[in-house]
Design goal:
Shape: globular
InterPro entries: Catalase (IPR018028), Catalase_AS (IPR024708), Catalase_clade2 (IPR024712), Catalase_clade2_helical (IPR043156), Catalase_core (IPR011614), Catalase_haem_BS (IPR002226), Catalase_immune_responsive (IPR010582), Catalase_large_C (IPR041399)
CATH architecture of one domain: Beta Barrel
Number of strands: 18
Function: Decomposes hydrogen peroxide into water and oxygen; serves to protect cells from the toxic effects of hydrogen peroxide.
CATH topology of one domain: Catalase HpII,  Chain A, domain 1
Pfam family, one: Catalase-rel
CATH class of one domain: Mainly Beta
Family: Belongs to the catalase family. HPII subfamily.
EC number: 1.11.1.6
CATH superfamily of one domain: Catalase core domain
Radius of gyration: 28 Å
């Protein structure tokens, strides 16, 4: 496992084969003449063709018909779920050979690098919703391997809301907006969703994760994600092993507070997109280490939960996570539509050495993903789009269809044949051909579910037990807010009647908050807890944290420039915020360029503040803005650095303890102490 800090990691300048392939499709229009699609140079692109200046339009205006006809067809059906997303490119490097458990080529040797593209997304909201909604999130990674494309699709929780794929349309119908008014957007805080939760106890586990801090991530760069489904690794000897995957963000797992997330949805709906893009532009490449959890086939029934149940997690303390490689996102997309909107993931896209268990939801997904891509992208030929196209050549007997791009010159497109010597030919497994693992199956054809899936509360109780007091407080707030939006008293009551099985105190507090009766009974008798389920022990760094520098003219140049240099040296991002754009001038006449104004920025956009103060034309407005920023940062437990000229904006009183506030006056270690505070990120003991 790589033990370097994020700042110490360097990405070597190596050629990325996928980017070379995409370069063939990248077009630079700047500096070129405007033409039609047929390369006819355009002389006028501002008026339609008319019979006289005030006359009717003419049908012969082929230029207008081409331009507007394309405009009318620019949009494609958005994804039913995961519609709002964003992508980046990068590479995956294998740390160690996994040849003992899988023959997948990209996992065979340490140092092996594989090009990837990655897409993050929310679930409920449409394309036009906002990034910071409380929701589960998806992370899809497409590996462009030498054996073909491998798609690894993950979500930001280790458990799913359904245990059978037949239920997925139901939960999404309940989760999304109503049919009559298309309200609400990007939230499950409404009657229909919580009615579903109350009547489907299997859903409570994942919902509890969503109501915790895990449901409102700080950044895509700080998002842990799990495969949820159980796959198979198969080695060269044909031996199979159950496997689940997890991505561990190198920067640690961090979250927003509920009120922050809601406000950010209005202040900056693109908060996560911008954060990802800006970090890559700054060279602070997001990194995630890939872990695998392995269970021998013969141990399938050795646990007190069903390892094929997607609504159950595999505890790291029982089934250790082995870190096997690192994903680095080091290039932003050039075109959102062609590189993010058109990227198509499918868990059925596997390579030799990776197979499927009998996990029922996984079995259902093997159909659902390809079918939805056929519909959304309009053709079975979506695999030929540049972003989906494999690096290695592919040959088969498919032909025709909408938007076919390949020019197959063969006349033989069937198998077997004699006219083309039976080509394209099949490949034996020992030479690289894909072979399904010969799983043993038995039983009667039946619609049903294994009774081993029916423990709905034990693991939910374990998750609750594993949270710290502050995490529990946030989870109670999440339940209280969402259920508080539910109009039906009976639905609210039914939900707290479910919650009591997880924790009686949790259920009673929520019941009091949402105006229903405290439930009868108590929680399941489980005291187990796992540290891996809490964010409390996650790594913390100042690296890439965002600091707002609140400043006017007349600042102490030496003090401020030393502080800003220290932030830069530690990889901390900062923005200069003042009353107007332009520059602010220091005590020695030197200047700093202003990045944002108090009007165009917000304290919610920053992880910490550096309060400098100074002089501007409208001091009353400046002071009010400064106080507002400081109050918000203090309220949300964020680090605050105070320059010697900014002390008037924050003072010790009997009502505060200034935890996480670092003063520069008479403090030679201010820079170091402020960076350490930024690394801690939140000061929950603040009063």
């Amino acid at each position: 496992m790589d033990d370097k800090t994020p700042k110490e990691r360097k990405i070597p300048n190596q050629t990325n084969a996928k980017q070379q392939q995409l370069d063939q499709y990248r077009i630079q229009n700047k500096g070129k003449p405007l033409t039609t699609k047929q390369n006819l140079k355009v002389s006028n692109d501002e008026e339609i063709l008319k019979a006289g200046e005030r006359g009717p339009a003419l049908m012969e205006d082929f230029q207008y018909l081409e331009k507007f006809g394309h405009f009318n067809r620019e949009e494609i059906p958005e994804r039913v779920v995961h519609a709002r997303g964003y992508s980046a490119h990068g590479e995956f490097e294998t740390y160690q050979s996994l040849s003992h458990v899988t023959k997948a080529g990209f996992l065979q040797e340490a140092g092996k690098k594989t090009p990837i593209t990655c897409r993050f997304s929310t679930v409920q909201g449409p394309k036009g919703s906002y990034d910071t909604a409380r929701d589960l999130r998806c992370k899809g990674v497409k590996f462009y391997t030498e054996e073909g494309n491998y798609d690894l699709t993950m979500i930001a929780m280790p458990v799913l809301i359904v245990q059978d794929p037949m239920k997925f349309p139901d939960v999404i119908h309940a989760y999304q907006s109503k049919q009559d008014d298309d309200i609400p957007t990007a939230t499950g805080a409404h009657d229909r969703f919580w009615d579903y939760v109350a009547t489907n106890p299997e859903s409570l586990h994942m919902v509890t994760w969503i109501m915790s801090d895990r449901g409102i991530i700080r950044s895509y760069r700080m998002m842990e994600s799990w495969s949820i489904n159980t796959y198979l690794f198969v080695n060269a000897e044909g031996k199979a092993t159950f496997v689940r995957f997890v991505w561990k963000p190198v920067l640690g797992v961090h979250s927003l507070l509920q009120d922050e997330a809601i406000k950010l949805g209005g202040i900056d709906p693109d908060f996560h997109r911008k954060d990802l893009r800006e970090a890559i532009d700054m060279g602070a490449y997001p990194e995630y280490e890939l872990g695998v959890q392995l269970i021998p086939l013969e141990d399938e029934f050795n646990y007190d939960f069903d390892i094929l149940d997607p609504a159950k997690f595999w505890p790291e303390e029982l089934i250790p996570v082995q870190i096997v490689g690192k994903l680095t996102l080091n290039r932003n997309i050039d075109n959102y539509f062609t590189e993010s909107e058109q990227v198509a993931f499918n868990p059925a896209n596997v390579v030799p050495g990776i197979g499927f268990s009998n996990d029922p939801v996984l079995q259902g997904r093997l159909f659902a993903y390809r079918d939805t891509q056929h519909h959304r992208l309009g053709s079975a030929n979506y695999d030929e789009l540049p972003i989906n196209k494999p690096l290695c050549p592919f040959h088969n007997n498919t032909r025709r269809g909408f938007m076919r791009q390949r020019i197959d010159i063969d006349q033989i497109n069937y198998h077997p044949n004699s006219l083309a010597n039976n080509t394209p030919y099949t490949t034996p497994p020992e030479q690289g051909g894909y072979e399904q693992y010969p799983k043993r199956v038995s039983g009667h054809v039946i619609r049903g579910r294994s009774p081993s899936f029916n423990d709905f509360y034990t693991q939910t109780r374990i998750f609750w037990n594993s949270l710290t007091p502050i995490e529990k407080e946030h989870t109670i707030e999440g339940f209280s807010y969402q259920l508080g939006k539910v109009k039906s008293e009976s639905v609210r009551q039914h939900n707290v009647n479910q919650l009591v099985n997880v924790d009686r105190e949790l259920a009673c507090i929520v019941a009091d908050n949402i105006g229903v009766q405290r439930p009868e009974g108590t929680h399941v008798n489980v005291s187990t807890s796992y540290p891996s389920l809490s964010q409390a022990s996650t790594p913390k760094y100042a690296f890439t944290q965002k600091v707002g520098v609140l400043i006017g003219d007349g600042f102490d140049t030496n003090e401020v420039k030393h502080a800003l240099t220290t932030l830069q040296q530690n990889g901390v991002f900062f923005k200069i915020v003042s009353s107007t754009l332009g520059v602010v001038t220091g005590s020695d006449g030197s200047t700093l360029k202003v990045d944002e104004t108090f009007l165009t920025s917000s304290p919610y956009l920053f992880d910490a503040l550096y309060v400098v103060g100074g002089q501007v034309k409208n001091m009353a407005k400046f002071n009010a803005d400064m106080v507002h920023f400081v109050q918000v940062a203090y309220k949300y437990y964020k680090p605050i650095g105070v320059a010697s000229t900014g002390q008037s904006f924050i003072k010790t009183t009997n009502e505060n303890n200034l935890a996480g506030v670092v003063f520069a006056a008479n403090n030679a270690n201010f820079g170091k102490e402020f960076v350490n505070a930024i690394a801690q990120q939140r000061f929950w003991d603040r009063k």
